[in-house]
């Protein structure tokens, strides 16, 4: 476990990306063709690109199952145990937590088994009035106020939901209403946060917890809409006619009927056709007209000269 200062560890990375953040907001507004003014970036807004290897490792660990039993264990020992168990970096926001009267020696008492690491962290830190976020490839433990103040811009591709009839504009309204309900409809939280639709993309600016809610909501919608649509499409397709190849050929059936035996050999047609099919050229009458040479006598072989 390492102690982290907000002004040292986190804010520096955000300042470096401030110019990229402003450019992203202006570009998104221009492409969307909206009349609204571009979002104003602050020193705690970052644009999240594709997850790095460290962030992907933390995301996988947060979904992994965990379990522990702590009885009046210092918070620093709890963090070290979880770091070793899940092989991730966890840090304490030392300066902020000190102001709130929380330090590495704060005692933790919890017994949890068989739940996700993300849920376990929520239960443990909620009792201490603390929260966690993923920042700069580490899992940072800080206060809820700081966690909600750090905003990220993330882009979500919802083309698959648009195919099943859920437009990006409607989806943006649904997500925004869901996030407002999670925050309790506080006006101060709505000013900096936003959800905008750009064709088949959603551009969401919210806290780390807000983005987790967006991911969960999209997963639920995909699980409910896409399998149902695929099932309906498969049921509407015409089914192919089933051919029973186990039945014997017509000539075989006739042979069985005439002789009463099922082991009667049937000669196969040299061209692979059904032997019961009638060959039009077997008729006495030529299908192309009378053959003048049909009844002609055979040509005699001339006698050899001795």
Polypeptide structure, described:
- Residues 6-43 have low confidence and may be disordered.
- This protein starts with a strand and ends in a 47-residue tail after the last helix.
- A four-stranded mixed β-sheet has the order 1-4-7-6. Strands 2-8-10-9 form a four-stranded mixed β-sheet, with helices on both faces. The protein has a two-stranded antiparallel ribbon with strand order 3-5.
- It is α/β, with parallel strands linked by helices and 306 residues long.
- It is elongated and about 135 Å long.
- The chain has helices at 6-16, 18-32, 53-63, 75-86, 94-99, 117-127, 144-149, 159-163, 168-183, 187-190, 208-236, 250-259; strands spanning 2-4, 45-47, 65-74, 90-93, 107-116, 131-135, 138-142, 151-157, 194-198, 201-207.
- It contains twelve helices and ten strands.
- A hairpin with a 2-residue loop joins strand 9 and strand 10 (201-207).
- The protein has a domain at 153-234: Ribosomal Protein S8, Chain: A, domain 1.
- The longest helix is centred in the C-terminal third of the chain and has 29 residues, at 208-236.
Highest-level CATH class of the domain at 153-234: Alpha Beta
Query: Quick one: biggest sheet?
Result: 4 strands, mixed
Per DSSP, what share of the residues sits in E-state strands of 2 or more residues?
A: 15-25%
CATH second-level architecture of the domain at 153-234: 2-Layer Sandwich
**Helix-and-strand structural type:** alpha/beta
Strand order of the largest sheet: 1-4-7-6
What is the H/E string?
EHHEHEHEHEHEEHEHHHEEHH
Number of DSSP strand runs: 10
Q: What is the average per-residue confidence, as pLDDT, rounded to a whole number?
A: 74
User: How would the global form be characterised?
Assistant: elongated
Cα end-to-end separation? 122 Å
Count of alpha and pi helical runs = 12
Radius of gyration, whole Å = 38 Å
Q: What is CATH's topology name of the domain at 153-234?
A: Ribosomal Protein S8, Chain: A, domain 1
Helix content: 40-55%
Low-confidence regions: 6-43
């Amino acid at each position: 476990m390492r102690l982290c200062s907000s002004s040292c560890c986190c804010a520096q990375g955000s300042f470096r990306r401030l110019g990229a953040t402003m450019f992203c907001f202006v570009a998104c507004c221009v492409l969307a063709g909206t009349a609204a003014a571009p979002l104003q970036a602050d020193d705690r807004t970052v644009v999240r690109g594709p997850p790095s290897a460290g962030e992907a490792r933390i995301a996988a660990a947060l979904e992994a199952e965990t379990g522990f039993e702590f009885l009046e264990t210092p918070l620093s020992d709890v963090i070290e145990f979880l770091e070793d168990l899940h092989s991730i970096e966890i840090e304490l926001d030392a300066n902020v937590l000190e102001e709130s009267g929380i330090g590495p020696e704060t005692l933790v008492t919890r017994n949890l088994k068989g739940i996700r690491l993300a849920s376990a962290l929520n239960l443990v830190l909620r009792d201490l009035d603390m929260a966690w976020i993923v920042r700069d490839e580490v899992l940072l433990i800080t206060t809820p106020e700081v966690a909600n103040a750090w905003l990220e811009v993330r882009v979500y591709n919802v083309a698959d939901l648009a195919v099943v009839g859920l437009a990006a504009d409607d989806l943006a309204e649904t997500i925004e209403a869901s996030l407002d309900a999670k925050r309790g409809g506080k006006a101060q939280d709505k000013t900096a946060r936003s959800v905008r639709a750009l064709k088949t993309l959603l551009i969401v600016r919210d806290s780390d917890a807000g983005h987790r809610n967006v991911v969960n909501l999209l997963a639920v919608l995909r699980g409910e809409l896409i399998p149902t649509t695929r099932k309906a499409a498969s049921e509407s397709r015409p089914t192919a006619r089933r051919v029973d190849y186990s039945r014997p050929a017509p000539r075989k059936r006739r042979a069985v009927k005439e002789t009463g035996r099922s082991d009667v050999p049937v000669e196969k047609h040299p061209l692979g056709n059904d032997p019961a099919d009638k060959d039009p050229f077997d008729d006495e009458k030529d299908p192309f007209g009378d053959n003048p040479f049909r009844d002609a006598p055979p040509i005699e072989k001339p006698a050899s000269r001795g």
